[in-house]
Amino acid sequence: MKAQSSFSLLSFLALVLLQWSHSYINICNSLSIKEATIQDFQTAFDQNQLTSRQLVEFYLNEIEKLNPRLKGVIEVNPDALYLADKADREKKAKLPCSLSRLHGIPILLKDNIATKDKLNTTAGSFALLGSVAPRDAGVAMKLRKAGAIILGKASLSEWSMFRSSRAPNGWSARGGKGKNPYVLSADPCGSSSGPAISVASNMVAVSLGTETDGSILCPSAFNSVVGIKPTVGLTSRAGVIPISPRQDTIGPICRTVTDAVHVLDAIVGFDYNDARATRIASRYIPQGGYTQFLKANGLKGKRLGIVRDPFFMFSNKIVKQTFKRHFQTLRQNGAILVDNLEIANINVILDGTLSGEVTAMLAEFKISLNAYLKELVASPVRSLAEAIAFNKKNSDVEMIEEYGQEMFLASEATNGIGGAEKKAMRRLTNLTRNGFEKVMIDSKLDALVSVGADMSSVLAIGGFPGITVPAGYDSKGLPIGICFGGLRGFEPKLIEIAYGFEHATKIRKPPTFLP
Questions:
Q1: 37-505 architecture in CATH?
Q2: Residues of the signal sequence (predicted)?
Q3: Annotated catalytic, 236?
Q4: Residue-wise pLDDT tens digits, 230-240
Q5: Is 215 in the active site?
Q6: Mean pLDDT of 30-45
Q7: Which is nearest to 301 in space by CA: 440, 500, 455?
Q8: Among this protein's residues, is 422 annotated catalytic?
Q9: Catalytic residue among 157, 164, 191, 368
Q10: Of 251, 151, 156, nearest in space to 204 by CA
C-alpha cells in the first residue's frame, strides 16, 4: 500500500509536470515568442496568455541552448525570475507602474553598462571581474523605472575594441568569440556584438548597446537587426565604461524599429550624473516622445542624400541590385533622392588617424576611464596603468601575446588634453562643419543614406544620430543593412524614414545558423 501511494504521487507529479510543459510549449508556440515584439508581449500579458516569468524562462532556455555556440550573452542575472515574479504581481494588482510599455519585458545590457546588482560590469575583461559600481548606469535606472527586467549582460568586443586593434570583432577574454547567427563563420562586427547577436537569435527581444564609432550601427547591420545610435547626450553615459565623452552614446538594438523606439523613449532625458551633455541634448526630445513618429507614410516628402563615392561603389552584384531596388522603393513611397552628392574630405574623415579622431580618443580614454575606475566601490584595478599591469600579469587569459594591448599603451602615454589633442579636435570640428553639416544644410536633407555602418565615422565625430535597418541578404546569406543618418536632434525624421522603409520592405528574416 505504501509503495502504491508513493507510485501514485510520482505519477501525479509527472502528470502535472507534463501538463505544465505542454501548456508552456503551447503558450510559446501560439504566441510565437520567437520574433515577437514588445506589443505582442504586452497584449499577451493583458489577455493572460503569457506571464513575465514564462517569458524569462523561455529566454533563459534559449540562452542555455544557443549561447554556448553564439557567445552573445556573457552573464545571466540570478535575480531574473524574482524580478519577473515581481512584475507579474504588479501586473495582477494593476499598479500604475505596470502600464509602461517595457513593464515585464526582459532586456540585455552590453557588459560595459553598470548595474548595482549581482551582475558584473567588466567590458569583457577579467581585470574588472568583481568590481562594484556605486549605482546603476543612468540608462539602467530609467529601464528599471519603466519596469523592464534586466535579464543579464551581453558580450562585446573587449573594452569596446579599445584595447587592441588586433583582436577580432566580438571577442573578449570573459565571453569568448561571438558568432554571427546567420553565418557562424562570418563577422558579427563590434563592439556591441553581443546585444545584436542575442536579439537576432531570439535569446532576447530587447537590448542596449553603446557606440563611439560604429559599435551599434555595424553589429546591427551585420546581424539583421535595428540599431539606433542617438545624438550624443540624448541618453546618459553615466555608469558606462567610457572611451570618449565627445562621441560615446547608448542606444537600443531590437528586431523592429517600433521596439527600438519604445526603448529609446524610456532611456532618453536628463541625468544629474551626466548633467552637461544630457541637459544640452534634452532640448531635442519632442513633447509626447518618439512613438508618434512611427508613421507608415514616413518616407513621403523626405529628402534623402546619396553619396555614391564611397558609400555605393559596389563590386558585389547582389548588393548593387539590392540597393538599386531600395532606391526605387524609397522613391515609390514618396522620398526625394538627392543623388551624386559629395562630402568634402570624406577620405580623411573615414581615416581616424588622418582626421585626428584617434589622437583625441586616446587622450580622452585615459582621462575618462581613470575617472570611472576611481568612482567604483571596489575594483581589482583603479587606473588604466593598473589595467595594463593586470593584462601583462594575466597574459594567458587576456590573450595579450596574441592580440596585444597597443591602444591601451598609446593611451597611457598621453598626458591630458594638450596641443596635439586640441588641434585634432579643431580638425574634427572643421571636417564636420565643412563636410556632413554643409551637405545636409545646403541640400536641405532630412537624412543621408549609406550601407550598414559605412558612414559611422561621419556621424561619430560630430555626435550625430543614425538608424540602421535590415535591407537584405547576400548570396552567402549574410545580412545587409541600410543606414539613415542626420544632424543632431534629427531622431524624429530618422524614425519616420526608418519605419517607412521597414514598413515598405518587411525584409528581415530569422537567422539561418549556416556554418
A1: Alpha-Beta Complex (3.90)
A2: 1-23
A3: no
A4: 999 999 999 99
A5: yes
A6: 90
A7: 500
A8: no
A9: 191
A10: 151
